[in-house]
Amino acid sequence: MKIRKAVLPVAGLGTRFLPATKAQPKEMLPVVDKPLVQYAVEEVAAAGIPLTIFVTGRGKSAIENHFDVSAELEYELAGRGKNPLRKQVRAISSLCDVVYLRQKYPKGLGHAVLMSRELVDEEPFAVVLSDDVIDSRVPCLKQMGEVFDEFDASILAIERVPKSTVGSYGIIAAEPVRNSKWNGRLFKVTDLIEKPSPSDAPSNLAIIGRYILTPRIFRKLATTRRGKGGEIQLTDALKDLLKDEPIYGFIFEGKRYDAGDKLGFLKATVEFALKEPNMGSEFRKYLKTLKL
Ligand code: G1P
Hints:
The chain is of the alpha/beta class. The protein is built from 11 helices and 13 strands. The protein has one domain: Spore Coat Polysaccharide Biosynthesis Protein SpsA, Chain A. α3 (71-79) packs antiparallel against α4, α5 crosses α9 and α10 (262-275) packs across α11 (280-289).
């Protein structure tokens, strides 16, 4: 896989999850026993991408600590004979190399990605939004990497969503790409619009928080004006990129949870807990006792 760098924007305020996120980053909210951001970094590592570039902000130091070595904790765990736990804690800091950048002003996703320009340089890269947790056999980014290898163009993860919810996503207009091994799942993008009203949406194909982007996106982002919500939108820069290069939308295999939303977070929690080897069956029994 040619992608060597993944950008993880984590500077958002997490307003959808207040008050839980008043004093802690939303990326650190745990689904069962792992914070959201760990699922994202594990996916990056599983896709063979060696470097994660966090675009972070004030109040997010817990994320840096999470991916660092915690010598005191490891020492304590070893002293108490809890070696499997010690190894688990150590493994988090070995997932991949990490770099932290600060986004000083909350000017939107496009602005966050633009911050990484110097570090990414002139090579294709991934963007991962940790709100979207994806449960799949093959990591979503790896699936997208295979499409990238074939087309050498920007690839957006997409999903069909109910028309009533298009206002929560970037929506694409697209034509199916026929005669490829991803028949029915691969689309050539013809237009994009950020968070349209249902009547303005050209389709129900929504962008999910996984992107593989060519470096030309930086030139576009540098001149993108504030759009929806007064923010510099990645979707607007992609629309501009479309004038110069093809962009593909890819319906990945797997189940996506919008864990940045309270209901989506609960769904992820229940389903991941049911799959946990140590407590899944107990939890299932418990759920069955509930008179729903
Ligand atoms: C961002 C993007 C949007 C995309 C979504 C996926 O929106 O701007 O185009 O569909 O992520 O999760 P946000 O959810 O940050 O408002």
